[in-house]
Amino acid sequence: MRDDQFEVSTVRDSDVIHANKKDIPCIFRVTTSSMVGVRHHTLMLADTENEKTKWVVALNELHRILRRNKLPNRQIFSAHEVVDGSVTLIKNAVCGTVIDPDRLLLGAEEGLFCVDLDNCEIARIGDGKKIVCLEYISEEQLIMVIAGRQRQVKLVPVRALGGEDVEWIKVSGQDRVELRALRCSSTEKLLQIFVLCKGLVFILSDI
After folding, report:
1. What is the pLDDT of residue 182?
2. In whole angstroms, how far apart are CA 123 and each of 23, 97, 127?
3. Are residues 201 and 105 in the same domain?
4. What is the model's pTM?
5. Which of 69, 99, 118 is the last residue of a domain?
């Protein structure tokens, strides 16, 4: 409601071309800016046209009161579109993590990809096996992934993101285990990998 782009309005036939004609008088639209520079529209259906009018008036009046009283915006994060959502890779991505302010890692059916936001480039890392899950261990400068049909846990040195031909390290002790998720705990002398397998948690390896 504190969104400057917040707006509630009625709709025209051309706005809801797939709607049932008898429902159109009962439909109203709520507009917000879910991401900076991007407006998001949500269609709502009231029981009656009179009920719709009440909602439109009430929501707009509440928004006006909030703006008039200048209540502080307590929003912690604001969303920004950093990559075009129409890119096939983005649509197929199943996991991701932030490496630093300029780089994101995405795991997809086609493999592991590094998105360089500064240079607007996307580069494939490794051999293209499906990435099911990934996590960045900043203290160790390692990326932990669950990869391939066998869902193997592997460690990828961060320097691989710079284009170096670096071998991925396969973690032992995971044969025939259907891995669902992973987590790590790192100290100065020990790196433990925790694996979720069919509802149970195992310490897979101490490195």
Report:
1. 52
2. 48, 15, 12
3. yes
4. 0.53
5. 69
